[in-house]
Design brief:
Two copies of one chain form a homodimer.
Chain A: H1 2-15, E1 34-38, H2 43-55, E2 62-68, E3 79-82, E4 85-88, H3 91-107, E5 114-116, E6 122-126, H4 157-172, E7 177-179, H5 192-207, E8 211-216, H6 220-223, H7 235-251, E9 257-260, H8 277-288, E10 294-298, H9 312-317, E11 328-333, E12 356-362, H10 378-385, H11 398-402, E13 413-417, H12 433-444, H13 450-462, H14 477-502, H15 534-538, E14 544-545, H16 564-569, H17 579-582, E15 585-586, H18 597-621, H19 628-660, H20 675-680
Parallel strand pairs in A: 1-2, 2-4, 6-7, 6-13, 7-8, 8-9, 9-10, 10-11, 11-12, 12-13
Antiparallel strand pairs in A: 3-4, 3-5, 14-15
């Protein structure tokens, strides 16, 4: 009890810090007392009680009844809000119900009787954290789970406090799983020593209903098991994994399972032994099955030989449909290439009808300005989840194809690649917190609009009442008109702005090598495989630009169900946002607005730059409503974003102009960066 | 003859190069023959003849008569254009007349009977070139006169070709003097070895009527003469200089004289020996007098002790008025501080009534964007030369106070600090050539308008007829409307644009330390004398900004003749362009347009940035009329200028905002650079 109290005080002290962003969307504090009535006791129920007492904004001295009672209308860890409390099938459902109740109080939404069931069973954050504490594609400091050097595996009180804060934040938005290490996995992670630390993490996370998962290296049996092979059909390999799984569950009884990147980007996998993805995944699934664990097997595969990388995941996995165990889920990135600012949805969604499929979204902004650009990804994910695959007739959205609405999936899941690190504000950019929040909210309810999510997040994250209190059911017209609305508008426009200044009209993957921050449409070092170079994707030449994926080209369109195949193929019906994704078009091709393709490209880049400049104005104007610390940080980052948007515009227009040989329309601002300088410096990150 | 022919062919080959800018404003080539009739023969007359034959655009087979004949209406090396030729007092006058005739043909101005007399007797380029080949404040490559290393004093054929081209360009605009080395002079320059090279240079320049001068180090008698002192009143020092002068004239009979920076910025001078500037200057003047040489003695003096540097030249020199020999000319920078983008004229002009005074202008753009920014300085010099000092009643302009119109000066002169180096195009920026050109033209005729000079220069430098010929009396409406007019407008606006984005409303000297390219209003390293730091000049505090030079402050206004003293002192009459030069004003001081001072400062910076962006558009639009080489170079430099203008705006607004504590008006674009980054990098030059 003493330890608990001590921990609690320590956490409190963190809460009382200045507005450094560490408290995320959980800033609300109550001054009105509440009576919490619950007959059950557990760590999770205790947390629910404490959250109510800390955050209650309802009537003073009101009573809230928490009832754990099976109800068939409530699914899994869903819950029912009643007029006087929360009912759920289990303790975690109670906690989620309490968070929903408090969120409604803090955002001014009515609290009414309703059942809330999660869209997905597993709502997982993937951490690309390495055992040495670095994070692949991490832009907010080093790993919160791992650290470098001596004592790297010793668990400290500070570790526990941080993990608890992390767990609370996740739980408050419904995230119930965490993969603790990078998909490019170190075999070390399965060693006894590392598993000891996993156990310690799991013990903290468990109270908040979060299961731990691990990424594994497929060749672990040979690398750390002393076996001569890692062939998934080899009996000794099968046994090795069985034993390893047993060992894990003996330490972590609620362990979630494995995430596997295999036979992908140089990672070992079943194909090294002439086996299929199904052979590999099923072997592991069999080992996990007795304990209720799952395998999340990534479909992110491509080879240097295929002329169209966008086709490969479909080509490799479709033939295996029906061959996977029911506790295998194929994890598919939202688009067919790689977390670009805009891609059409991956054609695997809805196509694999006899296999569980889960979406993988990227919260960390690898290709969207990292922790420098303000980009709200809710809009992008909403676009993907609501895309109609037509695989089971109209209305077969990506969301419904993966959440069990259409296909009988034993397990449903969704994953988001985390943007979390040791930075005080967790995500580097204060607005990057909104992407963590949005992922959780969409994972819980994939029908939410990004507008609603942004609205909630802004209220929870920025509202401060005139008396200095945060959280309120009552937002003044002044605050709503001068802060909430303009900031929400900015967030909702931000992803389209990024598409405009980075790669409009279906352009994709024209980043500088390695860092993926700035532009590099020219980037093609000698000897590098061509599918790692931008010219492979934009295919600019003196005639035109774009990737022909129609039947005259790679025919990737054929992977889409009708009417999409026809729609994308036909220039009259292909959405302009995907134009150069599916078509190679001449520079003077006329768009619907009458502009030539070249001019339209110029206008998009210029518009993107202007949008960011407008964001800067929006932010400067809201200064009176934001604490100085977060105001200054966002202001500074917007300046960098504005500068970088200009770099994007200049780089892409000047580079493509070498092919188009046409002037940038004179109504538009001229580039201020020199192409040769940009090329010379393209490997430098800010 | 063989050597001459060879040299001529070499020069010709230079002429035939692509448009790399090496030919400056001398691109015109004739295809129509002309008969040149002249009874006299000399190197200079030969050049005149050759120029006519190369550049004649008049009637084919016309006869041009060159007549050397004394005429009292013609002054010095002036000339008379007649309907069939040129008449002058001497050969150089003939050459100048031929250049005038050809310029009129090439720019389409009528050739009419007229007398052209120069405004100043000595029209001198000051080269701040060091014996090791480096150039102080040079931005166009190394010295054309000096080079580093072994054989640095050997005169090669290439040297001679270059010096001849240089002399021709100078002569074509009326420049008749060149100081071959830096005012921060090395004593080496007076050694026999170096004088040998000076002699070789003088021999080339002489044919084009250009006299050579040298900057001398005041302490040369002790440094290289073996004397114990350099006291100007010491007989052995007097003798040393007499002997040195004699030695020089024995080698260079038409040597022009000395330029002296003494007791200034750490340079030795008469004050080291308790003597006055007059003592020092007169001693040298006496040595030079027998040979017709002059002393140009700089008034650029200030000490760290005075609270207002702007007052010091006046304070030190006015008491000496009347004490200088008649072959001493006091060389005064246009403004009282130091070649800033805008200063009021130096109060010494017109004030020293019994002393010859000459203006020193700076062609090299030390404080105006160096060879990166397009800034036409004609406008700035016109502003200065036409400033009314009122010293001899209304109309006592700086021009008239220095050219002998008002005061009886034995010698008149004007100097420009050269922007010339070894760069193929001489000046780094193609448009920087216009400043060399403008200096020469104004030195010849200080009543010319910058508009006319720009018009001439553009025609001479950029016109190409449809048949590929350059130079024409007949410019198409297309070329005039689409090239000449917009480019001229850009040039004429460019200096004001620079003032806007660098230091509007009378701000001055807020440059980064040392390099003087970017902004550094914050620059004030500990221990540095305060008059070398920007805060000394802008005096920003939470109340306001500006240097109080009225009677409540340093009272520098009192150095100006009435009505200027009153006009500058009174806020109602002080021109807004000098507002913060003369006044410290509160941030919310209301300007005539109703804006507060802070807002107006913001608007000026923003306007400057927008002006440069507009220049970029202007230039991009004229692409069809310019060769690719110069087009691309100017385009690239304009991009850098645009970026740097943004840096200036951001740096100054963000820095001053720390004092004003007011928002940048929301109509204006926000800064994109971060103040801390700018401060961190302020010592870096591009």
């Amino acid at each position: 009890m003493k330890v608990l109290l001590c921990t609690f005080l320590l956490i409190q002290s963190v809460f009382l810090q200045a507005e450094d962003g560490h408290n995320l969307w959980l800033r609300a504090k109550s001054s009105s007392p509440v009576n919490v009535i619950c007959s059950k006791k557990s760590a999770t129920i205790d947390i629910a009680r404490q959250e109510l007492q800390q955050g209650w904004l309802g009537k003073a001295e009101a009573s809230v009844v928490l009832t754990v009672k099976p109800d068939k209308t409530i699914k899994g860890d869903g819950f029912k809000l009643t007029l006087n409390g929360v009912q759920a099938n289990n303790d975690l459902g109670i906690l989620y119900g309490v968070y929903e109740l408090l969120r409604r109080q803090h955002t001014g939404e009515p609290v009414k009787e309703m059942i809330c069931n999660p869209s997905y069973e597993a709502r997982v954050l993937d951490h690309w954290d390495n055992p040495d504490g670095s994070i692949e594609r991490g832009y907010a400091g080093r790993s919160i789970f791992w650290r470098k050097g001596e004592n790297s595996l010793v668990v400290t009180d500070n570790d526990k406090i941080l993990w608890k804060e992390y767990a609370r934040a996740n739980s408050s938005v419904g995230i119930n799983g965490a993969v603790l290490n990078n998909v490019n996995a170190s075999p070390l992670m399965l060693s006894k020593e590392y598993l000891g630390r996993v156990k310690a993490i799991a013990e903290i996370l468990r109270q908040y209903g979060i299961k731990t998962y691990l990424s594994i290296k497929f060749s672990s049996p040979s690398l750390i098991g002393g076996l001569k092979t890692s062939d998934p059909l080899s009996p000794e390999v099968i046994k090795w994994w069985k034993d390893k799984v047993q060992e894990i569950y003996s330490m972590i009884p609620d362990f979630g399972g494995f995430l596997v990147k295999a036979s992908s980007e140089g990672q070992p996998g079943p194909q090294d032994y002439g086996r299929t993805h199904a052979d590999g995944a099923n072997m592991m699934a069999d080992a996990l099955k007795p304990f209720g664990g799952i395998v999340m097997w990534r479909a992110f595969v491509y080879s240097p030989d295929d002329p169209d990388r966008a086709k490969q995941a479909y080509a490799e996995f479709m033939p295996l449909d029906g061959q996977f165990r029911d506790n295998v889920i194929i994890q598919v990135k939202n688009g067919p290439v790689d977390f670009q600012p805009r891609e059409p949805f991956s054609p695997l969604f809805g196509a694999m009808k006899k296999t569980s499929v889960m979406p993988e979204l990227q919260i960390t902004q690898e290709y969207l300005g990292q922790s420098i650009h303000l980009v709200f990804l809710g809009a992008m994910w909403e676009e993907c989840l609501k895309s109609d695959t037509y695989q089971d007739g109209p209305g077969s959205t990506v969301a419904r194809c993966t959440d069990g609405s259409i296909y009988a999936q034993k397990h449903t899941a969704i994953a988001g690649v985390s943007n979390i690190g040791l930075d005080t504000n967790w995500c580097g950019h204060p607005f990057a917190q909104a992407n963590w929040y949005a992922f959780g909210r969409l994972a819980w309810d994939n029908k939410l609009t990004s507008e609603q999510i942004a609205d909630e997040w802004i209220k929870l994250t920025f509202y401060e009442s005139p008396s200095g209190n945060t959280g309120s059911a009552d937002f003044s017209a002044d605050w709503t008109g001068n802060f909430l609305n303009p900031v929400k508008k900015m967030m909702l426009e931000s992803r389209e702005a990024t598409v405009n200044y980075m790669m409009p009209l279906g352009l994709h993957h024209i980043f500088a090598g390695d860092h993926h921050y700035g532009p590099g449409p020219w980037y093609a070092p000698k000897g590098l495989r061509s599918d790692w170079t931008p010219p492979y994707y934009h295919k600019a030449d003196t005639i035109g630009i774009g990737f022909d994926r129609t039947s005259t080209g790679s025919n990737a369109v054929s992977q889409y169900h009708e009417p999409l195949n026809s729609q994308f193929s036909d220039l009259k019906t292909c959405p302009e946002i995907y134009l150069l994704w599916f078509h190679h078009l001449p520079w003077d091709y006329k768009l619907q607005n009458g502009r030539t393709l070249w001019d339209e490209i110029c206008y998009h880049y210029d518009t993107g730059v202007k949008q960011v400049r407008e964001f800067q104005k929006v932010w400067d104007k809201v200064q009176p409503y934001v604490d100085q610390e977060r105001f200054a940080l966002v202001q500074r980052k917007l300046r960098s974003q504005s500068k970088n948007a200009q770099v994007w515009k200049d780089a892409c227009l000047l580079y493509f102009q070498k092919f188009s040989r046409k002037p940038i329309p004179y109504e538009l601002e001229r580039p201020v960066n020199d192409l040769n300088d940009l090329i010379k410096n393209d490997m430098r990150r800010p």
